[in-house]
């Protein structure tokens, strides 16, 4: 049987149109234009790029199609995941038609799960990823609604959709420790009772830590944001130190027109 390779996803967090370094989704430091970071991640050999516009849903805005169009015009070879402002199946379809390969959904999980099924009917379930910001409070796993700031137990409908394969993967976000080195809570990976493949995100910053997470049979990928931002060879260094894991080899493409973010 062919080996299923695990992935390292580079995350670009966008707020007010600019790429930012996020710390717990509460503090933000400017990084520059999202397009430049996308070019860099493509050049450095990321397996996927996640472009997450964190203020679109909170302000009742739809997807940032202008940004997507600019990124799409770069001709990147790396698959692109988009998140932010996706409220309906038509939004998801438009995002993929504009530039993205897959979509990451959050507010739809709370507001209208039926739209997720409709999205999968048009795009294929492999194109739909669930965004799950989680925390452990006491002995209970809680699911955060970013817009209200309120955490709640998993809904029966969410668990049903995950178990049914309506959603291809789940991005498990340790939102309390996002942006903090070495703080990802691996216990969150055991939170979901169904066998949906997982992407770990939040507080992942060290090769040994990544190796431990990627060895979990449930983990299909890790996502890294802040800890790729200031070190040009960080992604290659991570891959070179992940010995014995089924990942794509480290690559690096020189670019004569490179400019830092």
From TrEMBL:
<dbReference type="GO" id="GO:0000105">
    <property type="term" value="P:L-histidine biosynthetic process"/>
</dbReference>
<dbReference type="InterPro" id="IPR050064">
    <property type="entry name" value="IGPS_HisA/HisF"/>
</dbReference>
<dbReference type="Pfam" id="PF00977">
    <property type="entry name" value="His_biosynth"/>
</dbReference>
<keyword id="KW-0028">Amino-acid biosynthesis</keyword>
<dbReference type="InterPro" id="IPR013785">
    <property type="entry name" value="Aldolase_TIM"/>
</dbReference>
<keyword id="KW-0368">Histidine biosynthesis</keyword>
<comment type="similarity">
    <text>Belongs to the HisA/HisF family.</text>
</comment>
<dbReference type="InterPro" id="IPR006062">
    <property type="entry name" value="His_biosynth"/>
</dbReference>
<dbReference type="InterPro" id="IPR011060">
    <property type="entry name" value="RibuloseP-bd_barrel"/>
</dbReference>
<comment type="pathway">
    <text>Amino-acid biosynthesis.</text>
</comment>
<protein>
    <recommendedName>
        <fullName>Imidazole glycerol phosphate synthase subunit HisF</fullName>
    </recommendedName>
</protein>
<dbReference type="GO" id="GO:0000107">
    <property type="term" value="F:imidazoleglycerol-phosphate synthase activity"/>
</dbReference>
């Amino acid at each position: 049987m062919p080996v299923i390779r695990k992935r390292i996803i580079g995350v670009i967090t966008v707020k007010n149109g600019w790429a930012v370094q996020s710390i717990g989704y509460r503090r933000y430091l400017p990084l520059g234009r999202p397009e430049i970071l996308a070019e860099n991640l493509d050049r450095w050999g990321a397996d996927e790029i996640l472009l997450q516009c964190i203020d679109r849903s909170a302000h009742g805005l739809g997807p940032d199609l202008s940004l997507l169009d600019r990124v799409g015009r770069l001709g990147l070879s790396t698959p692109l995941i988009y998140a932010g402002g996706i409220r309906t199946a038509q939004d998801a379809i438009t995002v993929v038609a504009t530039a993205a390969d897959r979509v990451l959904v959050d507010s739809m999980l709370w507001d209208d799960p039926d739209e997720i099924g409709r999205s999968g009917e048009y795009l294929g379930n492999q194109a739909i990823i669930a965004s799950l910001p989680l925390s452990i409070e006491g002995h209970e796993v809680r699911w955060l609604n970013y817009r209200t700031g309120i955490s709640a137990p998993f809904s029966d409908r969410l668990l049903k959709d995950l178990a049914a394969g309506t959603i291809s993967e789940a991005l498990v976000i340790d939102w309390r420790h996002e942006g903090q080195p070495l703080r990802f809570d691996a216990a969150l990976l055991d939170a979901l009772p169904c066998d949906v493949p997982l992407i770990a995100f939040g507080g992942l910053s060290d090769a040994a830590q990544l190796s431990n997470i990627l060895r979990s049979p449930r983990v299909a990928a890790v996502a890294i944001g802040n800890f790729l931002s200031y070190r040009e060879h960080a992604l290659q260094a991570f891959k070179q130190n992940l010995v014995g894991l089924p990942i794509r080899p480290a690559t690096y493409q020189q670019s004569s027109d490179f400019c830092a973010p």
